[in-house]
Amino acid sequence: MHTRIRKYSWQLAPGSIKDIRQRVFVEEQNVPPELEWDSTDEIADHYLMVSSDNTPIGVARVFSTLDEVAHIGRMAILPSYRGQGYGQRLLRHLMEEVGDQYGQLQLSAQEHAIPFYQQSGFHVCSDAYDDAGIPHFDMRCYAPALILEKADDHAAPMIADKDNASWLFDSERSMIRLMDSLAGQARQRIWLYDRFLEHDLYDRKPLRDMLSALARRHRLSEIRLLIHDDQPLVKRRHRLVELMRRLPSHMSLRLVNDDYPAEEQPFMLADRFGVLYRHDFYNPEGFANFADGGRVKMLEETFQRMWDSARNSIELRELPL
User: Fold this and answer.
1) Could you tell me which of 69, 76, 158, 192 has the fewest CB atoms within 10 Å of its CB?
2) Of the residues 132, 153, 174, the one at which a domain ends
3) Cβ proximity of 248 and 211 under 8 Å
4) Residue 105 forms beta bridges with which residues?
Protein backbone atom coordinates (compact mmCIF):
# COMPACT_ATOMS: atom_id res chain seq x y z
CA MET A 1 0.00 0.00 0.00
CA HIS A 2 1.23 3.46 -0.88
CA THR A 3 1.77 5.64 2.18
CA ARG A 4 2.71 9.21 3.01
CA ILE A 5 4.45 10.51 6.11
CA ARG A 6 3.82 14.09 7.20
CA LYS A 7 5.53 16.19 9.87
CA TYR A 8 3.74 18.53 12.25
CA SER A 9 4.38 20.71 15.25
CA TRP A 10 2.29 19.84 18.32
CA GLN A 11 0.24 22.99 17.88
CA LEU A 12 -0.76 22.02 14.32
CA ALA A 13 -0.92 18.25 14.79
CA PRO A 14 -4.17 16.67 13.56
CA GLY A 15 -6.36 14.87 16.07
CA SER A 16 -5.47 11.47 14.58
CA ILE A 17 -1.96 11.71 16.11
CA LYS A 18 -3.43 12.00 19.59
CA ASP A 19 -6.09 9.40 18.82
CA ILE A 20 -3.51 6.77 17.82
CA ARG A 21 -1.39 7.38 20.91
CA GLN A 22 -4.47 7.28 23.13
CA ARG A 23 -5.59 3.98 21.63
CA VAL A 24 -2.20 2.23 21.59
CA PHE A 25 -0.46 3.51 24.71
CA VAL A 26 -3.23 4.53 27.11
CA GLU A 27 -5.96 2.01 26.22
CA GLU A 28 -4.00 -0.97 24.88
CA GLN A 29 -0.85 -0.77 27.02
CA ASN A 30 -2.38 0.90 30.10
CA VAL A 31 0.09 3.78 30.21
CA PRO A 32 -1.24 6.38 32.66
CA PRO A 33 -2.45 9.47 30.77
CA GLU A 34 -0.33 11.77 32.93
CA LEU A 35 2.78 9.90 31.67
CA GLU A 36 1.69 9.69 28.04
CA TRP A 37 1.02 13.41 27.58
CA ASP A 38 4.17 15.26 28.62
CA SER A 39 5.88 18.59 28.04
CA THR A 40 8.18 17.07 25.41
CA ASP A 41 5.27 17.07 22.97
CA GLU A 42 5.57 20.85 22.78
CA ILE A 43 9.16 20.78 21.51
CA ALA A 44 9.03 17.63 19.37
CA ASP A 45 8.32 17.10 15.68
CA HIS A 46 5.36 14.76 15.22
CA TYR A 47 5.03 12.35 12.30
CA LEU A 48 1.85 10.81 10.95
CA MET A 49 1.80 7.96 8.45
CA VAL A 50 -1.35 7.74 6.31
CA SER A 51 -2.50 5.55 3.44
CA SER A 52 -3.22 6.83 -0.06
CA ASP A 53 -6.80 7.67 1.00
CA ASN A 54 -5.53 9.51 4.12
CA THR A 55 -6.43 6.74 6.57
CA PRO A 56 -4.15 7.06 9.65
CA ILE A 57 -1.70 4.16 10.12
CA GLY A 58 0.92 5.17 12.68
CA VAL A 59 2.73 7.96 14.51
CA ALA A 60 6.08 8.90 16.04
CA ARG A 61 7.81 11.94 17.49
CA VAL A 62 11.40 13.22 17.38
CA PHE A 63 13.12 15.77 19.61
CA SER A 64 16.77 16.73 20.07
CA THR A 65 18.92 17.45 23.10
CA LEU A 66 21.94 19.70 23.59
CA ASP A 67 24.37 16.77 23.20
CA GLU A 68 23.41 16.45 19.51
CA VAL A 69 21.27 13.38 20.09
CA ALA A 70 17.94 12.94 18.30
CA HIS A 71 15.42 10.99 20.35
CA ILE A 72 12.77 8.93 18.56
CA GLY A 73 9.74 8.08 20.62
CA ARG A 74 6.01 7.42 20.87
CA MET A 75 6.17 5.14 17.82
CA ALA A 76 2.83 3.38 17.39
CA ILE A 77 1.15 1.49 14.56
CA LEU A 78 -2.56 0.76 14.74
CA PRO A 79 -3.33 -2.96 15.34
CA SER A 80 -4.85 -3.64 11.90
CA TYR A 81 -1.64 -2.47 10.17
CA ARG A 82 0.95 -4.29 12.27
CA GLY A 83 3.19 -6.99 10.85
CA GLN A 84 3.05 -5.50 7.35
CA GLY A 85 6.23 -3.42 7.34
CA TYR A 86 4.70 -0.04 8.13
CA GLY A 87 6.63 0.36 11.37
CA GLN A 88 9.92 -0.29 9.61
CA ARG A 89 8.98 2.17 6.88
CA LEU A 90 8.17 4.86 9.44
CA LEU A 91 11.37 4.27 11.42
CA ARG A 92 13.58 4.45 8.35
CA HIS A 93 11.87 7.63 7.24
CA LEU A 94 12.81 9.18 10.59
CA MET A 95 16.38 7.91 10.22
CA GLU A 96 16.59 9.52 6.80
CA GLU A 97 15.10 12.80 8.03
CA VAL A 98 17.39 13.35 11.02
CA GLY A 99 20.29 10.93 10.53
CA ASP A 100 22.66 13.39 8.86
CA GLN A 101 21.81 16.21 11.21
CA TYR A 102 22.63 14.41 14.47
CA GLY A 103 25.59 12.30 15.56
CA GLN A 104 23.42 9.81 17.36
CA LEU A 105 19.83 8.56 17.25
CA GLN A 106 18.38 7.15 20.45
CA LEU A 107 15.09 5.57 21.50
CA SER A 108 13.50 3.69 24.36
CA ALA A 109 12.28 0.24 23.31
CA GLN A 110 9.96 -2.17 24.99
CA GLU A 111 11.70 -5.49 25.47
CA HIS A 112 9.64 -7.37 22.88
CA ALA A 113 10.44 -4.67 20.27
CA ILE A 114 14.24 -4.99 20.45
CA PRO A 115 14.49 -7.30 17.37
CA PHE A 116 12.33 -4.86 15.40
CA TYR A 117 14.73 -1.97 16.06
CA GLN A 118 17.80 -4.16 15.48
CA GLN A 119 16.58 -4.68 11.91
CA SER A 120 17.35 -0.99 11.35
CA GLY A 121 20.71 -1.00 13.14
CA PHE A 122 19.77 0.16 16.64
CA HIS A 123 21.69 -1.61 19.41
CA VAL A 124 20.88 -1.95 23.10
CA CYS A 125 22.87 0.47 25.27
CA SER A 126 21.38 0.13 28.76
CA ASP A 127 20.16 -2.37 31.30
CA ALA A 128 16.42 -2.92 31.63
CA TYR A 129 14.40 -0.23 33.39
CA ASP A 130 10.75 0.32 34.17
CA ASP A 131 8.71 2.89 32.26
CA ALA A 132 4.99 3.06 33.04
CA GLY A 133 5.17 -0.49 34.39
CA ILE A 134 6.70 -1.88 31.16
CA PRO A 135 10.33 -3.13 30.85
CA HIS A 136 12.32 -0.89 28.50
CA PHE A 137 15.86 -0.66 27.13
CA ASP A 138 17.65 2.32 25.63
CA MET A 139 18.81 1.71 22.06
CA ARG A 140 20.94 3.88 19.79
CA CYS A 141 22.26 4.15 16.26
CA TYR A 142 25.45 5.99 15.29
CA ALA A 143 25.44 5.37 11.53
CA PRO A 144 21.91 5.79 10.14
CA ALA A 145 23.04 6.99 6.70
CA LEU A 146 25.39 4.02 6.23
CA ILE A 147 22.73 1.60 7.42
CA LEU A 148 20.06 2.97 5.10
CA GLU A 149 22.36 2.37 2.14
CA LYS A 150 22.44 -1.36 2.90
CA ALA A 151 19.41 -1.88 5.13
CA ASP A 152 17.72 -4.39 2.85
CA ASP A 153 20.88 -6.52 2.61
CA HIS A 154 21.26 -7.11 6.36
CA ALA A 155 18.88 -8.71 8.87
CA ALA A 156 20.60 -6.93 11.77
CA PRO A 157 22.95 -4.26 10.38
CA MET A 158 25.87 -3.33 12.66
CA ILE A 159 24.57 -5.48 15.51
CA ALA A 160 27.39 -7.08 17.48
CA ASP A 161 27.81 -10.82 17.05
CA LYS A 162 25.00 -10.90 14.46
CA ASP A 163 26.08 -8.92 11.39
CA ASN A 164 29.00 -10.69 9.69
CA ALA A 165 29.18 -8.35 6.69
CA SER A 166 32.15 -6.06 6.12
CA TRP A 167 31.37 -2.35 6.18
CA LEU A 168 33.87 -0.42 4.06
CA PHE A 169 34.81 3.18 4.85
CA ASP A 170 36.89 5.77 2.98
CA SER A 171 36.26 8.92 5.03
CA GLU A 172 36.91 9.98 8.60
CA ARG A 173 33.20 10.60 9.14
CA SER A 174 32.24 7.05 8.16
CA MET A 175 35.12 5.59 10.14
CA ILE A 176 34.02 7.43 13.29
CA ARG A 177 30.42 6.25 12.86
CA LEU A 178 31.59 2.65 12.59
CA MET A 179 34.08 3.00 15.45
CA ASP A 180 31.38 4.31 17.77
CA SER A 181 28.93 1.62 16.66
CA LEU A 182 31.49 -1.04 17.61
CA ALA A 183 32.72 0.56 20.83
CA GLY A 184 29.19 1.24 22.00
CA GLN A 185 28.39 -2.47 21.96
CA ALA A 186 31.52 -3.73 23.72
CA ARG A 187 30.60 -5.48 26.95
CA GLN A 188 34.02 -6.24 28.41
CA ARG A 189 37.00 -5.32 26.24
CA ILE A 190 38.37 -2.78 23.79
CA TRP A 191 41.92 -3.06 22.48
CA LEU A 192 43.14 -0.21 20.29
CA TYR A 193 46.34 -0.01 18.27
CA ASP A 194 47.40 3.13 16.39
CA ARG A 195 50.40 5.37 15.70
CA PHE A 196 49.17 7.94 18.23
CA LEU A 197 45.83 8.93 19.74
CA GLU A 198 44.75 11.56 17.24
CA HIS A 199 42.47 14.07 18.95
CA ASP A 200 39.85 14.23 16.20
CA LEU A 201 39.43 10.46 16.32
CA TYR A 202 39.85 9.54 19.95
CA ASP A 203 39.34 12.64 22.10
CA ARG A 204 35.63 12.89 21.39
CA LYS A 205 32.96 12.99 24.07
CA PRO A 206 30.85 10.08 22.69
CA LEU A 207 33.87 7.78 22.62
CA ARG A 208 35.11 8.92 26.04
CA ASP A 209 31.67 8.30 27.50
CA MET A 210 31.56 4.81 26.00
CA LEU A 211 35.02 3.92 27.31
CA SER A 212 34.14 5.27 30.73
CA ALA A 213 30.91 3.27 30.84
CA LEU A 214 32.71 0.13 29.69
CA ALA A 215 35.41 0.49 32.35
CA ARG A 216 32.80 0.82 35.07
CA ARG A 217 30.48 -1.91 33.83
CA HIS A 218 32.30 -5.00 35.04
CA ARG A 219 35.19 -5.79 37.36
CA LEU A 220 36.95 -7.56 34.46
CA SER A 221 36.44 -4.74 31.95
CA GLU A 222 39.64 -3.92 30.09
CA ILE A 223 40.65 -1.07 27.79
CA ARG A 224 44.15 -1.25 26.31
CA LEU A 225 45.65 1.55 24.23
CA LEU A 226 48.82 0.64 22.33
CA ILE A 227 50.55 3.45 20.44
CA HIS A 228 53.94 4.39 18.96
CA ASP A 229 54.13 8.05 20.00
CA ASP A 230 52.95 9.65 23.24
CA GLN A 231 54.23 13.18 22.48
CA PRO A 232 50.86 14.49 21.20
CA LEU A 233 49.35 13.37 24.50
CA VAL A 234 52.06 15.16 26.45
CA LYS A 235 51.94 18.41 24.44
CA ARG A 236 48.18 18.78 24.28
CA ARG A 237 45.97 17.74 27.14
CA HIS A 238 44.13 14.62 26.01
CA ARG A 239 41.09 13.78 28.08
CA LEU A 240 41.63 10.05 27.65
CA VAL A 241 44.71 10.52 29.84
CA GLU A 242 42.50 11.95 32.58
CA LEU A 243 40.12 9.03 32.15
CA MET A 244 43.00 6.56 32.51
CA ARG A 245 44.07 8.21 35.75
CA ARG A 246 40.59 7.87 37.18
CA LEU A 247 40.24 4.24 36.11
CA PRO A 248 43.76 2.78 36.34
CA SER A 249 42.65 -0.79 37.07
CA HIS A 250 40.58 -0.96 33.86
CA MET A 251 42.35 1.31 31.39
CA SER A 252 46.03 1.30 30.44
CA LEU A 253 48.36 2.63 27.76
CA ARG A 254 51.68 1.32 26.51
CA LEU A 255 54.23 2.36 23.88
CA VAL A 256 55.33 -0.03 21.17
CA ASN A 257 58.90 -1.27 21.55
CA ASP A 258 60.64 -0.30 18.30
CA ASP A 259 63.18 -3.08 18.76
CA TYR A 260 60.47 -5.60 17.93
CA PRO A 261 58.37 -6.01 14.77
CA ALA A 262 55.17 -3.94 14.77
CA GLU A 263 52.11 -3.84 12.56
CA GLU A 264 51.74 -1.12 9.94
CA GLN A 265 47.94 -1.20 10.05
CA PRO A 266 45.99 0.25 13.00
CA PHE A 267 42.95 -1.57 14.37
CA MET A 268 40.42 -1.69 17.18
CA LEU A 269 39.02 -4.89 18.70
CA ALA A 270 35.71 -4.97 20.57
CA ASP A 271 35.22 -8.07 22.68
CA ARG A 272 35.65 -11.33 20.73
CA PHE A 273 33.62 -10.37 17.69
CA GLY A 274 34.13 -6.77 16.51
CA VAL A 275 36.98 -5.26 14.52
CA LEU A 276 37.73 -1.95 12.83
CA TYR A 277 40.77 -2.19 10.56
CA ARG A 278 42.59 0.54 8.64
CA HIS A 279 44.91 -0.10 5.70
CA ASP A 280 47.56 2.29 7.04
CA PHE A 281 48.18 4.88 9.75
CA TYR A 282 47.62 7.91 7.56
CA ASN A 283 44.31 7.46 5.76
CA PRO A 284 40.75 6.79 6.95
CA GLU A 285 40.27 3.77 4.72
CA GLY A 286 39.47 0.24 5.75
CA PHE A 287 36.56 -1.86 7.00
CA ALA A 288 34.60 -2.79 10.10
CA ASN A 289 33.00 -6.10 10.94
CA PHE A 290 30.67 -6.77 13.85
CA ALA A 291 30.86 -10.58 13.90
CA ASP A 292 34.26 -11.78 12.69
CA GLY A 293 35.63 -13.96 15.47
CA GLY A 294 38.32 -15.48 13.27
CA ARG A 295 39.90 -12.18 12.31
CA VAL A 296 39.59 -10.86 15.86
CA LYS A 297 41.43 -13.90 17.22
CA MET A 298 44.26 -13.40 14.73
CA LEU A 299 44.61 -9.68 15.54
CA GLU A 300 44.26 -10.43 19.24
CA GLU A 301 47.40 -12.56 19.07
CA THR A 302 49.21 -9.82 17.16
CA PHE A 303 48.15 -7.20 19.69
CA GLN A 304 49.17 -9.35 22.66
CA ARG A 305 52.62 -9.93 21.16
CA MET A 306 53.20 -6.19 20.75
CA TRP A 307 51.69 -5.46 24.17
CA ASP A 308 53.95 -7.90 25.98
CA SER A 309 57.09 -6.20 24.63
CA ALA A 310 55.74 -2.64 25.00
CA ARG A 311 56.70 -0.16 27.74
CA ASN A 312 54.80 2.26 29.93
CA SER A 313 54.88 5.97 29.18
CA ILE A 314 57.08 7.67 31.77
CA GLU A 315 56.17 11.16 30.56
CA LEU A 316 52.46 10.58 30.90
CA ARG A 317 52.94 9.21 34.39
CA GLU A 318 54.80 12.37 35.39
CA LEU A 319 52.30 14.83 33.91
CA PRO A 320 50.67 16.98 36.61
CA LEU A 321 46.99 16.39 37.25
Assistant:
1) 69
2) 153
3) no
4) 70, 141
